[in-house]
Amino acid sequence: MLCAAGLKLELELSLLTVILGHGVFGLPVAFGPILTRLSQFPRSLEEAAYDLGAKPSEVFRDVLFPYLRSALIAGALLAFTLSFDEVVVTIFLTGRENTLPMEIWSRLRIDITPEIAAVATLVLLGSGGVVLLSQQLGGTE
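^ ABC transporter permease subunit, sequence as received from the core. Prediction below:
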């Protein structure tokens, strides 16, 4: 797409290209819950903060960010989950280094070993822990 626009990036395949690729892939997914939450933001809260003498940075920190926090966490979790599952994108963007999903995938193709089962269990526990933490931080809304 960049080449069609006349832009050519001279990037070698590396961890940087994997991060950039997954970032471009995950941003639209993350923006879904964020924009939905932002569209429901009551502007009266922002106006009240300004009327009480808050600066724009204080309005963002004390009013807007707490309101968007749960949507930001949800968007980040969605983007991470989809990115973790996209082995194909990683195959095309990785250089010599292996990412965790690539390492799991390459070892699963040979044989299922206890190490792979342990890593998969740790990934599941870590993901579950992040979900529980996000529910605790987000509260009930």
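The longest helix spans residues 56-85.
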